[in-house]
Amino acid sequence: MGRLQRKRKRKWKKGVVEDGDSVCSKLVQWMGEKDCALPDNIRWAYFNDTGRGLFSTTYLQKDSLLIRLPKRLLITVHTVLQSCIGNWFCRADHSQAFSNQQVLAAFITWERHLGHESRWDAYIRSLPREYTTPLMLSGREKAALPTYLRDGVHVQERMVVEAYKQLVSTIGKRSLCEHCGKSLLADVFSFPSFQWAWNTVNTRAVYVKPTTSAVKLRDENTLALAPFLDLFNHSCLTNTTVEETAEAYCLFSSGEWQPNSQVFISYGPHSNCKLYLEYGFVVRSNPHDVVPVTAEEVDQVVNSICEVTSKTFCKARNELIQQNRLTENLCFSNEGPSFTLQAYIFLRAACGFDKNLFQQKIFAYEFTEVERDIINKIILGLLCDKIEDYQQQVSSMSQLSPCSESFGLARTLVKYHLELLECIHKKLFMVK
Description:
By secondary structure, this protein is α+β, with helices and mostly antiparallel strands. It has helices spanning 23-33, 77-81, 100-114, 121-126, 139-143, 147-171, 184-188, 191-204, 272-279, 295-305, 311-323, 339-349, 355-364, 369-398, 405-429; strands at residues 11-13, 16-18, 42-47, 51-56, 65-70, 206-207, 223-224, 233-234, 240-244, 248-253, 261-262, 264-265, 290-292, 331-333, 336-337. The chain is built from 15 helices and 15 strands.
């Protein structure tokens, strides 16, 4: 879940490495004191490949209950409203709405500063001290990223900076903390502290049924932090079923798990770009992975291969492209070029123009042999260009040393994308 694996003393046992500290033990003890009975067969450990996670000491059959977490142990906006900072978000003079993630991040920042006096201290101490999301990249590392990753990082940065600025405005003239006497902004709600809390919510929150709130939110009230449950790691090859009642949040396994094997859940069918930007990790052979393509990249190849059409035809084509949103989801996946990529290539490269006929062709996916040859020729050119570009990117990123773990993950992601492009090229165009 975007957590940085910490090095500790470890003890080998049946393929898992048990944690040598008491953080998780204290978390389990705390949850027991809150009348939350965790399954006896689900335990925490360190694994060589994924770091901290959960495993089962017994065989788990399909649809087994993994965890039943009482609603009172979920950290939600309602939890924040019951705390001493809840009134900050309910003042009548707020002209702007808050985001769900922003409110939870502010609460985690506050509770972390309370230390042992926080009701949530055992949970907060179980959280990672650092994260590997791209928010942790240095300036030179961000500059070394390929454009498609750098743009995504900038979006993440703008979100957290704008959320922090609004929080600072909300705190206003409250210069000193009533709890410790320190500066609220410089010491308690410093930007690094808030960014850590933002990463915590972003990488670990679960979705719950939307509820109404006294806080004016600009998104649905659907996020919650779930102690212990957030120790489950992600796998692309499994799924989980959620059952939410008025009293509890329950998680069920959709597959079978052998004794002493790590139990995974799915965070969703996410590409590696999504996993890296949101959670701070990537997955080799991710079946949901895609390599993005821009319309400009396609246009460049089309213009180098095909004759330029008249302005009248270009305008009509562009209207059809925009009406059908064919500049979205331009990518290569494990299945090859996406439908929209092929449709966009056809509309940019085909001779003549008949709106009704062209629309029928792209939706029925029926092209003549000549049209298919043109599309394949452009796809080949596009693949060759992107393979060359990604090879240069990998080489350039490898020169940056020393680097953060987050940048190392970005470099690995680009390598995975290069491998995917080369695999597609081999599958589609190499002579057998």
